[in-house]
Amino acid sequence: KALMVEGKRRGTEEEIANASSEEEREKLVPREEFLERVWQYKEEQGGAITSQLRSLGASADWTRERFTMDPALSVGVSEAFVRLHEKGLVYRGTYMVNWSPGLMTAVSDLEVEYSEEEGKLYYFKYVVEDEEEEGKATEEFLAVATTRPETIFGDTAVCVNPEDERYGHLIGKRVLVPMSDIGDGKARSIPIIADEYVDMEFGTGALKITPGHDPNDYELGKKYDLEIMNVMNKDATMNEKCGEPYVGLDRFEAREKLWSDMEEAGLVIKAEPHMQRVPRSQRGGEIIEPLVSKQWFVKTEGMGAKALAAVKDGDITIVPSRFEKVWYGWLTDIRDWCISRQLWWGHRIPVWYVDESEEEYIVARNAEEAKEKAIEAGHSADIVLRQEDDVLDTWFSSGLWPFATVGWPQDEGKDASTDL
Q1: DSSP state of 133
Q2: Are 211 and 218 in contact (CB under 8 A)?
Q3: What pLDDT is attached to residue 184?
Q4: What is the mean pLDDT of each run of 10 residues along the chain (420 residues)?
Q5: Residue 285 — left, alpha, or beta (φ > 0 → left; ψ -120 to 50 → alpha)?
């Protein structure tokens, strides 16, 4: 917030180097300076909570006060990451995540809050492509409804139910994406596919598929090997895939402009009020944008199954028992946990990339160990390693709190009291 007041923001080395002017460069704060300022704030304000607790008469042993970023606790965070990776429980992959445009980072499912809000359901025409001339329109069209017109730019299919008699003759044909000029008066075309997932009673019974911006569409996209198009920048402005008139517009500004342009082009059918479940960032309040992104994950299915079994078998008793239902709800059908955050304040992920590669990396407890592992893997002694920029979700380190605060991993195995 202090940076925002000053008209500044975090800036990567690349952003600073490519700033359009000295004035723009001065608005960007490099990582080192940012961290220095955060540590300074922590020193000035970090004791406020404990001071209040003492004033209230809390009788804790204040000599044992700990901070998650303390060096000893940071060792535990790296150790846990390395061990989980060695067991195959931590991996790097490209999946759909909850993206917070305000924070400019991925957030976990637990950091997303849903609310019922009134929006609109937009009905428009997906014109059928001429089978004789690619990119050219026919008089026939497929009526489609969406709550998010701005994602039309990322559509890669239209899906209907195979049992829906209205659309049987169209399955296998192609339709033209509205306002997608690819030159020579032609538009980008996408296939009409069929899947029982489509609800024939909702909207028009024809579903636009946007694998890059919707979790359900993402699964359908993988099922039918559809192209995954990301049409937004990290700040939720529209990118170059949307076409010149829309590049740089905020997603909601783009929605209004696109709808207006489609209306002028005769592609609009109607728009009507519609109550919808809207995902919002728990921290910033802005609407979450589903995006496909490369992140670090923890496999949760096996650990979740063990936690479920512990309660079912009576090894753990939840009091009062009515909360067992909550426990089962949280741990059933869970997704892998996205643990990487595109932030600077936190425990930096203990991964080092080899030279300029984004695919070859080494997981290690520290830079020295990373260098040793690189040499053991056959790289030369002058190998250049660069650490992952992302930090870990704060709950990754907080989850270690019960035993990291009593000497793990440094005192592990010394005596019975340190046996976890």
Answers
A1: S
A2: yes
A3: 81
A4: 80 88 91 93 88 92 90 94 97 95 90 96 96 90 97 98 96 96 87 96 94 96 96 95 95 98 97 96 93 95 94 96 94 91 95 94 98 96 95 93 88 69
A5: left
User: Are the C-beta atoms of 91 and 295 separated by less than 8 Å?
Assistant: no
Please give the C-alpha separations between residue 6 and each of 18, 22, 420, in angstroms, as whole numbers. 21, 16, 48
H/E stretch holding 82 reads helix 71-86
The reply to whether omega before 409 is within 30° of 0 (cis) is: yes
Q: Which two tokens stand for residue 339?
A: 């643990």
The DSSP annotation for 376-413 comes to HTT--TT--EEE-S-EE-HHHHHTTHHHHTTTTTTTTT
* Residues in CB range of 270: below 8 A, 6 or more apart: 123
Neighbours of 176 (CB within 10 A): 24
Q: Residue 418 has what pLDDT?
A: 60
Asked if the bond preceding 320 is cis, omega within 30° of 0, the reply is yes
Q: Which residues contact 97 (CB under 8 A, 6 or more apart)?
A: 106, 107, 290, 291, 292, 293, 295, 338
Q: How would DSSP label each residue in 255-296?
A: HHHHHHHHHHTT-EEEEEEEEEEEEEETTT-SBPEEEEEEEE
Kindly report whether the peptide bond that precedes residue 191 is cis, defined as omega within 30 degrees of 0: no
| CB burial of residue 52 (10 Å; 0-12, 13-18, 19+) | exposed
Question: With contact defined as beta carbons under 8 Å apart, do 101 and 236 qualify?
Answer: yes
Q: Give the per-residue pLDDT at 8.
A: 85
| Amino acid at position 49, single letter | I
CB atoms within 10 A of CB 237: 17
If you search the block for the tokens 């040499």, which residue do you land on? 375
Sheet holding 361-363, edge to edge: 361-363, 351-354, 385-387
Distance CA 21, CA 4 (A): 19
This prediction has a pTM of 0.86
What is the DSSP pairing of strand 157-160 with strand 112-129? Answer: unpaired
- Cα–Cα distance for residue pair 286/233, rounded to 1 Å: 15
- Quick check: 276 and 116 in contact, CB under 8 A? yes
CB atoms within 10 A of CB 391: 20
